[in-house]
Amino acid sequence: MRLKKGLVISAIAIASALVLSGCADSGAPTGDAAPVETAVSFPEGSTMARLADAGSINIGTKFDQPLFGLLGPSGDPVGFDVEMGKLIAAKLGIPASGINWSETVSANREPFIENGQVDLVIATYTINDTRKEVVSFAGPYYSAGQDLLVLAGNPDKITGPEDLAGKKVCTVSGSTSEKNIAEYTTDIIASDTYSNCLGPLRSGEVAAVTTDNVILAGLADQNAGQFEVVNNAFTEEPYGIGLAHDDTEFRNFINDVLEEAYADGSWVSAWESTAGTVLDTPTPPAVDRY
Questions:
Q1: Lesser CB count within 10 Å: N end or C end of the chain?
Q2: CB-based contacts of 246: which residues, under 8 Å, 6+ apart?
Q3: Are 137 and 242 in contact, with CB atoms under 8 Å apart?
Q4: Within 13 Å, how many C-alpha atoms sit on residue 48's CB side?
């Protein structure tokens, strides 16, 4: 992942990328991301058949992460994760208006899937073996890396996690970022959302905020001139689409949708209308047919 405007997201990028009025609109389209299939047929008893027959789907995503999942002026979330949800829904014959969005924070993503509150979670959701014990993943559909967000000008001269000794860092409880940064420091403030880490960073209570670089880039972009990304990723974070454990048929269907989106350009279109307004367009990752 490479920031288009260097380490600090410039005001020029913000002006061209986002519409800001206290809260940012990631620039995501508000309609259907792809033509809605009008003649769908799925195996009887499959999740796909159930959702197509209902004409609706419940999807969990973040509501506070610019570029990927941010609550927009319409009351619905906007961003790249949201566009991925629309692509999948369209292949089920479900228009954007048939998607019921639920806010999922890092700590409740698995429970929401397990208890059936949502059919999918698309929420900057890193695939890992621990999570795969209780949920399944389609994808990955994007690969990020954990990085650090610091005050503009980087007054503490932090170049990587090794520089955090004796300094406090903020991240989100239950995230892979919390687990990863614990290898470098135990002086961690854990919040429920990444946006709630920005106040402590502004006040100097913490020296850095840590999570995936694309999330940090969105936060920097939303807060012009206040923060910068160190731009030294120290992990690989493959983002997957969470679904019910062992629903192999549904997972394969979603992987087929992703591969088709890679091939026909709809993945690139979704990226460039959202996260791609600030970040370079990457090569889509190969899906994992585990």
A1: C
A2: 136
A3: yes
A4: 20
How far apart are the C-alpha atoms of 240 and 287, rounded to whole Å? Answer: 9
CB 151 within 8 A of CB 201: yes
Instruction: Locate 45 and state its tokens.
Output: 């008893």
Q: What is the pLDDT of residue 275?
A: 93
More confident: 23 or 269: 269
The sign one gets for the Cα dihedral 118, 85, 91, 1 is: negative
Mean pLDDT, rounded, of the chain: 89
The DSSP output letter for 142 is E
The answer to whether 152 and 219 are in contact (CB under 8 A) is no
Strands 169-172 and 188-191: parallel
Check the CA dihedral 208-71-118-145 and report its sign. Answer: negative
- Per the listing, tokens 């090569």 go with 283
What is the rounded distance in angstroms from the CA atom of residue 277 to the CA atom of residue 221?
A: 10
pLDDT class for 33, splitting at 50, 70, 90?
low
The secondary structure of residue 42, as a DSSP letter, is -
**Residue pLDDT, tens place only, 63-107:** 998 999 999 998 999 999 999 999 999 999 999 999 999 999 988
Q: Which residues contact 167 (CB under 8 A, 6 or more apart)?
A: 156, 158, 185, 187, 206, 207, 208
Per DSSP, the three-state class of 129 is: coil
Which amino acid does the sequence have at 199?
A: G
Please tell me what DSSP assigns to residue 218: H
Distance CA 161, CA 77 (A): 32
How many CA atoms are closer than 13 Å to the CA of 243, on its beta-carbon side?
A: 23
Q: What is the pTM of this model?
A: 0.83
- Give the separation between CA 115 and CA 108, rounded to whole angstroms: 11
The pair of structure tokens assigned to 211 is 């999570």
